[in-house]
């Protein structure tokens, strides 16, 4: 009995001469929150759309529970898109009942499920409120409820925290954990929020230019890329940044030196102990350190290290 629920085998997708995804291979385990990260245009949305049957691969194969995707019942997957898909003039309860009816959920079971979803997502007080009178956070929570009302095995959440206030985000995060821990769902999460990916994901895939760069747990990724601490510093003359990068990169124990906007990030083991040596090296170029801080390595550091700092739209 395998613990794999989704397997992508060499899936490729071309749009004319443009290759959005290039021979992607990965396995998603049952009952895990699987984070999908990548810059804009990296191919992550195309990859997920192929894995859940919304887009046909140019080549390659997707298996769900060992079956070819073409042979799988579509109700096994629930999709919560980034763009809200709601009926403005139905109430929350009516929206959930209608969605359940579309999936042919038995009525008695559906009524219980709707009540539980309204409770779990803090929408019970708004059960009979029409959608166009809800706040943005309430609409996003309703959108999620509609994606899971039919009890899918796999739940796809595309940027679920987009535009949410901290309280609504916390409710959402707790519910995602509930889906995994209490209901045994497999959750595929795409997000631009590194903190969200780090806190929720059991494993994370980082994709860029249609290729899988890394797939591992958040803690392992942070250990593998930039092991140790990160020294963030700004120099008195940013024009000297390149020269300082070249000097610091040659120091023993320094894993990498990266420019981030007008600052430098130096990753090193025992960074605190190396600070006098780092500052001395900087001052040999005729500049001094204006601002300096030391912090632990983060998932954002991993992401930048793997995909670069160039903005893509």
From TrEMBL:
Domain ABC transporter: 6-234
UniProt key word ATP-binding: yes
SUPFAM superfamilies referenced in this protein's UniProt entry, alphabetically: P-loop containing nucleoside triphosphate hydrolases
Cellular component aspect of the GO annotation: membrane
Membrane topology: Multi-pass membrane protein
EC number of the protein: 3.6.3.25
SMART domains in the record: AAA
Keyword field: ATP-binding, Hydrolase, Membrane, Nucleotide-binding, Transmembrane, Transmembrane helix, Transport
Source taxon at top rank: Archaea
Broad enzyme group: hydrolase
InterPro entries: AAA+_ATPase, ABC_transporter-like_ATP-bd, ABC_transporter-like_CS, DrrA1/2-like_C, P-loop_NTPase
Protein name per UniProt: ABC transporter ATP-binding protein
């Amino acid at each position: 009995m395998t613990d794999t629920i989704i397997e992508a085998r060499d899936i490729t997708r071309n749009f004319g001469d443009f290759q959005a995804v290039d021979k992607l291979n990965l396995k998603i385990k049952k009952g895990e929150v699987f984070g999908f990260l990548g810059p804009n245009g990296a191919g992550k949305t195309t990859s997920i759309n192929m894995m859940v049957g919304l887009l046909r691969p140019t080549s390659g194969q997707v298996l769900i529970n060992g079956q070819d995707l073409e042979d799988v019942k579509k109700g096994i997957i629930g999709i919560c898109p980034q763009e809200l898909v709601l009926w403005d003039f139905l109430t929350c309860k009516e929206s959930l009942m209608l969605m359940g009816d579309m999936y042919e959920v038995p009525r008695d079971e559906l009524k219980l499920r709707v009540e539980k979803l309204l409770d779990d997502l803090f929408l019970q007080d708004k059960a009979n409120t029409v959608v166009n009178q809800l706040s943005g956070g309430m609409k996003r929570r309703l959108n999620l409820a509609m994606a899971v009302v039919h009890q899918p095995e796999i739940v796809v959440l595309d940027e679920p925290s987009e535009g949410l206030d901290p309280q609504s985000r916390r409710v959402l995060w707790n519910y995602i954990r509930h889906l995994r821990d209490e209901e045994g769902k497999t959750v595929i999460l795409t997000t631009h929020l590194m903190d969200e990916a780090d806190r929720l994901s059991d494993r994370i895939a980082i994709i860029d230019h249609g290729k899988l760069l890394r797939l591992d747990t958040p803690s392992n990724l942070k250990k593998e890329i930039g092991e140790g601490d990160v020294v963030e510093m700004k120099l008195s003359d940013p024009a000297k940044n390149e020269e300082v990068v070249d000097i610091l990169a040659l120091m023993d124990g320094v894993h990498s030196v990266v420019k981030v906007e007008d600052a430098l990030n130096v990753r090193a083991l025992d960074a605190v102990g190396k600070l006098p040596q780092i500052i001395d090296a900087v001052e040999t170029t005729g500049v001094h350190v204006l601002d300096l801080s030391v912090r632990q390595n983060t998932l954002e550091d991993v992401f930048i290290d793997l995909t670069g700092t160039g903005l893509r739209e």
